Amino acid sequence: MWNYSPKMMDYFLHPRNAGEVESPDATGQVGNLVCGDSMKLTLKIDKETQRITDAKFLTFGCASAIASASALTELVKGKTVEEALELTDDDIASYLEGLPPEKMHCSVLGADALRAAIASYRGEAPPESVIDEKDLVCHCFGVTRHKIEDAVRAHGLTTVDEVTNYTKAGGGCGKCKDRIAEIIADVRGEARPARPERPSKMTNLQLIKLVEEALEKDIRPALRSDGGDIELVDVEKAPEGPRVTVNLKGRCAGCAASGITLKHFVEQTLRQRVDPGIHVIEDETDRGAE
Amino acid sequence: MSGTIYFDNNATTFVAPEVFEAMKPFLAEEYGNPSSLYKLAGRAKAAVDAAREDVAALIGAEPDEIIFTSCGTESDNAAVLSALSGGGAGARLVTTSVEHPAVLNLAKRMEKEGRPVTFLGVDSRGELDMDELRGSLDGAGALSVMWANNETGILFPIEEIAPLAREKGVPFHTDAVQVVGKMPIDVKEMPVDYLALSGHKLHAPKGVAALFVRRGAPFREFLVGGHQEGGRRGGTENVAGIVGLGVAARLAREGLEDERTRVRAMRDRLEEGLLSTCEDAHLNGDPGNRLPNTSDISFDFIEGESILLLLDREGICASSGSACTTGSLEPSHVLQAMGVPYTSAHGTVRLSLSRYNTDAEVERVLEVMPGIVKRLRQLSPFGRADPAG
Predict the structure, then answer these.
(1) Is B317 known to be catalytic?
(2) Checking DSSP bridges between strand A228-236 and strand A243-250, what pairing results, if any?
(3) What gap in Å lies between CA B362 and CA B170, rounded to an integer?
(4) A36 contacts in B (CB within 8 Å)?
(5) Which fold has domain B17-252?
(6) CB proximity A3 to B under 8 Å
(7) Do the first three CATH levels of B5-10+256-369 and B17-252 match, i.e. the same topology?
(8) d(C-alpha A229, C-alpha A250), whole Å
(9) How far is residue B161 CA from its own chain's centroid?
(10) Distance, CA of A52 to CA of A46 (rounded, Å)
């Protein structure tokens, strides 16, 4: 049982400003169903004064996510866009008289939605919409190094668990926990924790075996939980690094995000588990057959 | 209990009044240590012996095949480690990916420490592939398969699995914590070597449980100490708890028919009602192969913790496989193993009944649930009837 503050429960049970404003001037949607929480924020903004005249939210998520979204709408109303941008996740949490540590990511979601909405209003790309794959640390929840660094700085976080509470990073399969520890150390200017070295020279047979193992243990289960699957077609050694050819199957095959799945998830996982030089390509030969 | 509608009996159950009454003297004037040599101690020992007979009778065991423990987790841990004790550090454990953490996390830890472990998956109905299981038993050191899943209530075919393990000479443990007291069990008919049961799941208090160890099955003490429990479990007996478990076992035997008929009927009425009045709601698991008391339903586009808190406002207690209720960020391992899509896994509610529930309570849940689901869907950006705006 969570220890929710009376004010937070009040905002959950009687959410203020639920819904969507009519013909909004700004819309920000962050999170998704897979992550377990998502928020859509719509704003009405007076062009003359740059003041937010109305704000509404829709939230999929737990009680604290709903309350955080509702609190955010109350906080931004009447503020100018510039003033609104000053609001932080901590402001949302304190408005609700605190959130349990494990639920801090709910207030972060609110702050993210606000930034996304204002970016859309200004015609800018939403923050974090273009994720550099090298920057992605937590693949389960799509959290970047940048975002983890920000949270560590803003809240003085010192442990991986604290980073998970604020950003969700590390809360899924847990494979990125070592990297999160390194990022904390980097930001705080401490010595990095030691990390085991991987053998760099391996035979093609060893390589194939490791790729197969990683596919089976780390990649297939995640794809299957979304109704997809993956097939290994070929592994070739190349000067720039091993080239792994695969076939995405099931729901992954027709998925619009299959390119992202391939690069962000499959390739990153193989790079982490097998060889940092790996390139993953999709088998083109049987595309016509579908 | 007034005002509380308790539909979370797979989590724990209330202590039956008869159980509490029987325990009272052993928390007061009957404080003897069963190991001592005077009448006060003798009465405590006699009470423990009587309870052992009652627990044995509930599952068709001999009294000397019952070891009292402190909780289901202790029973499971002791059984799995005992089953492996004959095979050395390299003996492979076979288990399933949907076990209770009492087995699953022990298996994961052993795997980390270098022991080979096979985790059998389940299909979307929550069921095992029996061919895969059969194949996995070749050269295995031990097998541990739960009888019924605590989240979905799905029953694994122990009547097929136990003879198979016996045939291949693999010691077999079943975690029957969710089954004992809800369905008839007879270990004389079922060649399991170990079986775990827990008091607080069948109207005894928390802090007492038991492990069935078949005569001749390897056993290695889990708590090493005195001669209690025939030298198989050190530590002074929890006399009052054991007495309570004995009475609860007797009551459970008498209540089995009620579970099979009335409880099942209430569960079915509840489930059919919810699935017909709430849109985008799905039952998890094979409806024909479940405990009579459990219903696990996913509501698309909304989140389990929010549902539970709104139910709680109406005095209704239930559980969820959602991530947010436990502080974990991923939905339940059982739903993930079954391939339940994230879209619905986050909005899962488990309702588990007991023979102490009433039809009126079922009707009350049916009355309030559609409103709760509707209310949360109005707040959700997904699955909206009117996507415009």
Answers:
(1) no
(2) antiparallel
(3) 44
(4) 303, 322-324, 329, 331, 342, 346
(5) Aspartate Aminotransferase; domain 2 (3.40.640)
(6) no
(7) no
(8) 6
(9) 18
(10) 6
Helix (H) or strand (E) holding B231: helix B228-231
Reported as a single tens digit per residue, the pLDDT across B179-196 is 999 999 999 999 999 999
Residue with tokens 């070597």: B193
Q: How far apart are CA B299 and CA A8, in angstroms?
A: 24
Sorted by sequence, the CB contacts under 8 Å of residue B268 that are 6+ apart come out as: none
How many CB atoms sit inside 10 A of residue B107's CB? 22
CB-based contacts of A115, cutoff 8 Å, min separation 6: A28, A85, A126, A127
Residue that the structure tokens 């005195």 belong to: B226
Is ipTM over 0.90? no
Which residue among A63, A171, A227 places its CB closest to the CB of B329? A171
What gap in Å lies between CA A161 and CA A155, rounded to an integer?
Answer: 13
Indicate the fold that domain B5-10+256-369 takes in CATH.
Aspartate Aminotransferase, domain 1 (3.90.1150)
With CB atoms and an 8 Å threshold, state whether A65 touches B303.
yes
Instruction: Tell me the CA end-to-end span of chain B in Å, nearest whole number.
Output: 46
Q: Which residues of chain A have pLDDT under 50?
A: 197-200, 286-290
Q: Do residues A160 and A213 share a domain?
A: no
Interface with chain B: mutation pick from A60, A103, A141, highest number of B CBs within 10 Å = A60
Whole-angstrom Cα distance, residue B171 to residue B160? 15
Beta carbon pairs, A and B, within 8 Å: 88
Is residue A156 one of the residues assigned to a domain?
Answer: yes
Of the candidate ranges B43-57, B64-78, B332-346, B359-373, the one whose mean pLDDT is the lowest = B332-346
Task: Report pTM.
Answer: 0.79
Question: Buried (b) or exposed (e) across B192-224, using 16+ Cβ within 10 A?
Answer: bbbbbbbbbbbbbbebbbbbbbbeebebeebee
Residue B243 amino acid letter? V
How many Cβ atoms from other residues are within 10 Å of residue A34's Cβ?
Answer: 19
Strand A143-144 and strand A37-46: the pairing is unpaired
CB burial readout A114-133, b (16+ within 10 A) else e: bbbbbbbbeeeebebeeeee
Sheet containing A51-60: order of strands: A26-32, A37-46, A51-60
Q: Do residues A241 and A208 make contact, with C-beta atoms less than 8 angstroms apart?
A: no
**Using CB atoms within 10 A of its CB, is residue A143 exposed (0-12), middle (13-18) or buried (19+)?**
buried
Summarised one tens digit per residue, pLDDT across range B207-251 is 999 999 999 999 999 999 999 999 999 999 999 999 999 999 999
DSSP B292-350: TTEEEEEETTS-HHHHHHHHHHTTEE-EE--STTTT-SS--HHHHHTT--HHHHTTEEE
Residue A168 and residue A256 in one domain: no
The DSSP code for A172 is: S
Contact B327 A102 (CB under 8 A): yes
B234 and B223 Cβ atoms separated by less than 8 Å: yes
Residue A182 lies in a domain: yes
